[in-house]
């Protein structure tokens, strides 16, 4: 009979099949993909409005910003009004990707307009519509109160 050394036996034997670890890795990747795409709980936006800074008032164009924080789902509508009149131009919305901690979104909506036009009006409002709100949420400021 031929004697085999332990080293020779180890070399001749087949390596363990990678099917087990590969399958486990595939399942883990599927879980992570599902987890990252799972819908979060509905969350109402926190809304803030910011008038232009005093420094901006010395330039040709000013910006009024409406900031929405921590909302879900992503679908949201921001409507700008100046003295009660809906604005349709000079608006730029920028939404963040989902927050990795709580799966919510944030959005900044910026209304840009000539400084002379800004100074000729008084009431600036952003009106937010979201599925978590029973009625639109309005944040506003009066320009004459900001200058006081």
UniProtKB/TrEMBL annotation:
<dbReference type="InterPro" id="IPR013783">
    <property type="entry name" value="Ig-like_fold"/>
</dbReference>
<feature type="compositionally biased region" description="Polar residues">
    <location>
        <begin position="1"/>
        <end position="11"/>
    </location>
</feature>
<protein>
    <recommendedName>
        <fullName>Ig-like domain-containing protein</fullName>
    </recommendedName>
</protein>
<dbReference type="InterPro" id="IPR036179">
    <property type="entry name" value="Ig-like_dom_sf"/>
</dbReference>
<dbReference type="InterPro" id="IPR003006">
    <property type="entry name" value="Ig/MHC_CS"/>
</dbReference>
<keyword id="KW-0393">Immunoglobulin domain</keyword>
<dbReference type="Pfam" id="PF07654">
    <property type="entry name" value="C1-set"/>
</dbReference>
<keyword id="KW-1015">Disulfide bond</keyword>
<feature type="domain" description="Ig-like">
    <location>
        <begin position="45"/>
        <end position="142"/>
    </location>
</feature>
<feature type="region of interest" description="Disordered">
    <location>
        <begin position="1"/>
        <end position="20"/>
    </location>
</feature>
<dbReference type="InterPro" id="IPR003597">
    <property type="entry name" value="Ig_C1-set"/>
</dbReference>
<dbReference type="InterPro" id="IPR007110">
    <property type="entry name" value="Ig-like_dom"/>
</dbReference>
<dbReference type="InterPro" id="IPR050380">
    <property type="entry name" value="Immune_Resp_Modulators"/>
</dbReference>
